[in-house]
């Protein structure tokens, strides 16, 4: 087999319970002026924010703070950049869910620029970012997007002219990712469910992607190995179990690394469209579409003969993994593809992942959604009709 | 399971046949003055060196050249640094085997310093390097050390007071690693054999290391999956097969990433001692000790009851992989541990890996060797007696 791939680095990773404390020793390496990008109130309520502020005082670090309560818009990023541009920020630290870690990433990338982020968004602007940024540390408080390890920040504007687009450059991979599963313990079960489904979607889509390589396969597979037994307990009986939360945090981290280097598929192609048009959390959009998309992908792969064999084998290997029958040979492809679909459907139900209808999306809007959706690196070509079927089934 | 690990980034990787060409577009990003660190004559004989020189001329890049024909000594590094310190070098590019890629790494790290590398070598000097370096691109022409992805450069001095020590810092991970399997096609079979055994040793030792994490496990395992079917053909019937050479190059790359983050074991503990005392190629030292060390490790793990179970299971999983029976459950531990040892012994024979005696090492020297050897992150404690047995068996 001839191998050909590129792999765009990964952050310096510090993973484990209580590892947030290592932040305090890392910060002084970068300088004295730190801009914290944080979420709403959960970090403060957990007492962690006080800990951080006290530690900064002890180290004589000057901090500025931006609080982000929704998915970042171009205006939000531009305003934050305008406000902090002249403050000699040495380092940006983003602590929060995917919206926060993406916002921090985008702010760190835009501080050195003189114009709007709109000019640099993929598919929107006509400028290419040169990658120069303020150093950035990402600290996730959910196990979902894997943004702590990716090279893009997702920026959205919701509405009929809405969009969900990326600011992307290899250099935007955070300098450090600190993953402390204790920070996820207070995440409510509905959030953990949506985030968990998002990260599994990313792992599976990267694994079957047309751009997958042996290294992204290995990372996606090890991620799925940890998520498979933890996803349900993390959202129910074992929400306070640090081992279970560690497994989900590890899966999310692997999903970020895998997607940054292998790309994604139709679920994310549709989730981008949905996220631009409607107020629907990204994890819910992915989670609700995953089982049906996988089913349609498998059906289409089965129709194309030899060309579909590689993709089917990969899906089957994931099915076997989920069935606790992991192995690389003599996989009954058809049987384990069914197991995969059934398991994903079961997760969707057990985790109470909303249907699209719950977020105001009706059958009338299917056309518009599919119009805006891209296939990304889906393992098989899908026609408009099949993509419409995925969405219709999940209204 | 509670997860705790650190992972120190990896280079930007470009992997595939003919990818050397991408070097020419990357260099101008760093500047106009490039110091090439190359090996002896093989690069020149292959015609690749002429290609590079022509490309540099076309891009108006000024090049300086150092040729390295043996494992780098402190004097070699210090002299190279003294010579090129004032030349405003923007980038160092190392193209060659492990000695060359390590020498390039060390030179790039020492140009900004005013004193000898001896002051910064682990276990030798009393200074800690701050990580500041000239950017470095590593391009391996053998599939062995994985130095293109590691954070250390091995520096040796051979003799009774000899040593083999590392200059190490997270920042010394090369900025780019370009792995073009075409560059390995002309590697003679004895070199390919020693290098292949070195890289498999690194994969296996990192996999069973006490510092292993799920991510290093995944990377080591994917590496072994490719090496297992390629190691014999690459050194015999398929030396000119780019697919086989790709597989070995991939295994070597994974071995570098895995060892940089998980550490190594007794084989490398002994190989460092051997390399300081005698003129023996590193790959031969590793290759000749691998099967016996694995056998002794397994025997010792079997003696310690429950504490040894995790290590034995890991060895068994590699045994099953080598037997083409990869799987993560119901592995017959004892049976597949035997298979592993047998396979490694067979490789050692089939690849004609020298015994230590061939390099002038006699039974009288076993004491001195073991005295200087470290256990590193070996999966089980070994007493002096057991370490002596490993060496004695391979004289």
What does this entry show, briefly?
Helices cover 49% and strands 12% of the residues of chain A.
pLDDT average of chain A, as an integer? 95
What is the 3D shape of chain A?
A: globular
So what's the CATH class of the largest domain in chain A? Mainly Alpha
CATH-defined architecture of the largest domain in chain A: Up-down Bundle
Low-confidence stretches of chain A: none
Largest sheet of chain A: 6 strands, parallel
User: What is the fold named in CATH at topology level of the largest domain in chain A?
Assistant: Dehydroquinate synthase-like, alpha domain
The residue fraction in helices of chain A comes out at: 40-55%
Query: N-to-C terminal Cα separation of chain A, in Å?
Result: 43 Å
What does this structure look like?
- With 395 residues, chain A is α/β, with parallel strands linked by helices.
- Chain A folds into two domains: 173 residues, Rossmann fold, CATH 3.40.50.1970; 205 residues, Dehydroquinate synthase-like, alpha domain, CATH 1.20.1090.10.
- In chain A, helix 6 packs antiparallel against helix 7.
- In chain A, strands 2-9-6-5-3-4 form a six-stranded parallel β-sheet, sandwiched between helices. In chain A, strands 7-8 form a two-stranded antiparallel sheet.
- The mean pLDDT of chain A is 95.
- Chain A is 49% helix and 12% strand.
- At the A-B interface, strand 1, strand 2, helix 7 and helix 8 of A face strand 1, strand 2, helix 7 and helix 8 of B.
